[in-house]
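We were asked to recover a plausible sequence for a given structure. The inputs and outputs are reproduced exactly as logged, with field labels preserved.

PROBLEM: sequence recovery
POSITIONS: 412
GIVEN STRUCTURE:
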């Protein structure tokens, strides 16, 4: 009987071990073991054997993971590749979303939540003429509270020259869209006639729809343009050759190469031998607008402040008040959008001066040399108010960025 009982215990022990191992393989660790009506002697021993078997099986995958781990050199190279890929993906993501370059010195731990940029969609009537009355001034009023924190603090708010938003310098700094020098420029110019464009209006790339932005990004990728990087003259020429080959199936002529180099000089006003990524992006964004949008569509992009300033410019040129000016006067007005005030002018101008004030082009303005050249070419055609606004819309949009670079070629 003792022999038979020991065999029964062995059979039950084997059955329990097989049940536990099967449950472990299936991932069901709490699967109950087969029930026994009689608890035989030696059951405690069988439980210990099961625990040991389970531990051995758990150690096996851990051992395999340790064996699969790469060495220190492999880890470093893999981490470097992953970091580079992540940075590249983030750069393309910021390009797609229109957020531009993030300042390196920004402390992320203290950063406010940035606004969500939503690209516009073209309306069904986008290409239809927009009626803008010449006699009726709109006189838009700035908002009373900061666009970021929605708090009113009187004179400490800095207005945008393009839209009606106002900002605290601390709020804009915490958002991380402006570096230290840009913040100082905001303080110096926001209350002058030159004015300051907020991070919404300064980024003309935000005017593109998702479809237009996708087309521009694909061109950048095919030409191996790296987002958020500087461009030298050879890279710009290579890009121009690629675009010409893709669009027109021909190489650039000598005159077109000279024009590309002139464009490079206009985007590099400080003569550093390289152009900023944002200036290149804004120039290409305006080129997309010029290519895919009608003049009526561009007029719809103008804000109330920009329309009011255009009225003031037109009325100042229309001396006989007949609603007609010449083509030459229109070109001079378009050049006036790029007027750059010197530091002395900024200090002498107060916030009481209307943003629609129009003065002579300063000698240090990039438009001054073009203005002198254009005087030799008189354009006596009659230009009405509606035609003036349509022809000038692209130049008004190109004057939004705070950068001193010229983002569009002035009329000659």
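RECOVERED SEQUENCE:
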């Amino acid at each position: 009987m003792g022999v038979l009982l020991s065999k029964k215990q062995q059979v039950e022990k084997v059955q329990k071990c097989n049940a536990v191992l099967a449950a472990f393989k299936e991932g069901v660790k709490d699967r109950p073991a087969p029930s026994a009506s009689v608890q035989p002697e030696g059951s405690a021993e069988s439980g210990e054997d099961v625990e040991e078997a389970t531990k051995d099986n758990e150690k096996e995958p851990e051992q395999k993971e340790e064996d699969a781990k790469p060495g220190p050199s492999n880890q470093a190279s893999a981490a470097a590749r992953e970091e580079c890929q992540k940075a590249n993906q983030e750069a393309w993501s910021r390009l797609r979303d229109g957020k531009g370059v993030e300042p390196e010195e920004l402390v992320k731990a203290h950063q406010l939540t940035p606004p969500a940029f939503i690209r516009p969609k073209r309306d069904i009537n986008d290409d239809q003429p927009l009626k803008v009355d010449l006699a009726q001034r709109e006189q838009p009023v700035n908002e009373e509270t900061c666009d970021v924190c929605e708090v009113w603090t009187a004179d400490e708010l800095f207005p945008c020259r393009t839209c009606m938003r106002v900002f605290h310098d601390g709020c804009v700094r915490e958002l991380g869209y402006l570096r230290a020098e840009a913040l100082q420029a905001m303080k110096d110019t926001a209350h002058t006639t030159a004015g300051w464009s907020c991070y919404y209006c300064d980024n003309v790339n935000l005017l593109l729809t998702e479809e237009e932005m996708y087309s521009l990004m694909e061109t950048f990728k095919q030409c191996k343009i790296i987002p958020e990087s500087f461009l030298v003259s050879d890279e710009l020429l290579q890009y121009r050759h690629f675009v010409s080959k893709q669009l027109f199936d021909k190489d650039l002529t000598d005159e077109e190469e000279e024009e590309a180099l002139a464009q490079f000089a206009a985007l590099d006003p400080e003569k550093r031998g390289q152009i900023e990524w944002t200036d290149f992006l804004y120039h290409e964004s305006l080129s997309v607008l010029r290519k895919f949008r009608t003049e009526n569509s561009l007029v719809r992009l103008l804000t109330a402040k920009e329309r009011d300033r255009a009225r003031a410019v037109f009325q100042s040129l229309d001396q006989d008040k007949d609603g007609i000016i010449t083509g030459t006067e229109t070109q001079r007005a378009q050049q006036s959008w790029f007027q750059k005030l010197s530091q002395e002018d900024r200090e002498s101008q107060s916030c009481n001066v209307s943003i629609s004030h129009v003065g002579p082009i300063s000698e240090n303005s990039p438009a001054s040399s073009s203005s002198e050249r254009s005087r030799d070419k008189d354009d006596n055609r009659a230009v009405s108010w509606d035609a003036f606004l349509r022809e000038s819309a692209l130049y008004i949009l190109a004057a939004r960025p705070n950068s001193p670079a010229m983002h569009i070629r002035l009329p000659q």
